[in-house]
Write a structure and sequence with these properties.
The protein is α/β, with parallel strands linked by helices. It has eleven helices and ten strands. Strands 1, 2, 3, 4, 5, 6, 7, 8, 9 and 10 form a ten-stranded mixed beta sheet that branches. β2, α2 and β3 form a beta-alpha-beta unit. The longest helix is centred in the C-terminal third of the chain and has 29 residues.
């Protein structure tokens, strides 16, 4: 039995996708670092029995490491993230999507970073997307070229807020995250953005350029099952309404934090989203002209009309299409390299 608190709770929100769970667990237990526990909260999915069987097999090989819980009812994405934080016993929560993979050395590297800097509340990751196999990397996401520390307060929130959208590799101080628990943002699919804004008000953030996780590309989303998500999201795809709900949810979170802390970050966060707006329309480019124009108008009415780069994304992406726009951004990467100071953000390839 573990007698001291683990450094990490590797937190997995489990809903379906049992076929990917064994590979995920293998990637965790292959780490060269052992001061961790694994916490899995299964969210009342149709594949509960398959998930439980895989977890039981893994637990027999790695006793006293996995904490497995089955939710009595479906909590939805945000509720299950909060549930995992509450169940976690480690000093830091290291979240993993249920179909993704942890890179070799990720835990040991993260532990060294946390130990190197004072009062860390959040680690901003680098990560990559892969297609059918982990060696088929189609995109790497690295925000800066070097390790960076961000002091607690507005600067840290501003850098890390939007960049917290991908749950795999989301690393946060457990106790600070638990203290911020609320159901106010359930149904946004962005509960972790609330945690980022809350934790970084008082604790520092650090960025690492080392890739920590590999995210699986092309898996259809399972959102829309819980009572809080029903009507907003449709399982299996991101509808225009879903994308509108997600962006509005992110803005509602930062507005709330502005109101409660007088930070006045909403305008800056909206500008940041506008500078990288392509991901929020990328999967909507197959809409007919009328449908896409309606989506564009609704985003504009949120306040994005103020930012010329937002209009550029909507026009250029729709004219070029997803493949065409992605090809342009790949050429920009090859020509300019990865420096975020020289033109990368103008084409939204961050």
């Amino acid at each position: 039995m573990r007698t001291e608190r683990a450094k990490f709770s590797v937190c997995i929100p489990a809903y379906n996708r049992a076929r990917h769970l064994r590979a995920l667990l293998d990637s965790i237990f292959c780490q060269d670092y052992r001061n961790f526990e694994v916490v899995i909260c299964e969210d009342d999915s149709p594949e509960r029995k398959q998930i439980a069987a895989i977890v039981a097999d893994c637990a027999s090989r790695y006793p006293n490491v996995i904490q497995y819980f089955e939710n009595e009812q479906n909590l939805g994405y945000d509720g299950n993230i909060r549930n995992l934080v509450a169940r976690a016993g480690g000093k830091f929560c290291f979240f993993m999507g249920n179909d993704d993979l942890m890179c070799p050395g990720a835990l040991s590297h993260t532990a060294r970073i946390i130990d190197r800097y004072p009062d860390i509340g959040f680690v901003l990751k680098s990560y990559a997307w892969f297609d059918s196999a982990p060696d088929e990397i189609n995109q790497e996401v690295r925000y800066f070229n070097e390790e960076r520390l961000f002091a607690a307060g507005n600067g840290a929130v501003m850098v890390c807020f939007r960049r917290s959208g991908v749950i795999s590799g989301y690393i946060v101080d457990r106790d600070s995250a638990h203290a911020a628990a609320t159901d106010r943002f359930d149904g946004t699919l962005y509960y972790q953005l609330h945690l980022t804004a809350s934790v970084l008000a008082r604790k520092n953030a650090v960025f690492t350029p080392q890739t920590l996780v590999l995210c699986r590309n092309g898996e259809p989303p399972d959102f829309g099952i819980s009572s809080i998500e029903a009507g907003k999201f449709v399982p299996g795809r991101y509808t225009p309404e879903a994308r509108l709900q997600m962006v509005e949810g992110a803005l509602a979170i930062i507005r709330y934090h502005d109101q409660t802390t007088r930070r006045q970050l909403t305008s800056a966060v909206m500008h940041d989203y506008a500078n990288y707006f392509y991901p929020y329309i990328k999967d909507q480019l197959s809409l007919n002209r009328s449908g896409f124009f309606h989506l564009y108008l609704r985003f504009a009415k949120m306040g994005f009309y103020r930012y010329p780069i937002f209009h550029f994304y909507c026009l250029a992406a729709y004219l070029l299409g997803e493949k065409g726009f992605d090809a342009v951004t790949r050429r920009v990467r090859e020509h300019l390299g990865r420096s975020p100071q020289f033109g990368i953000k103008q084409l939204g390839v961050e």
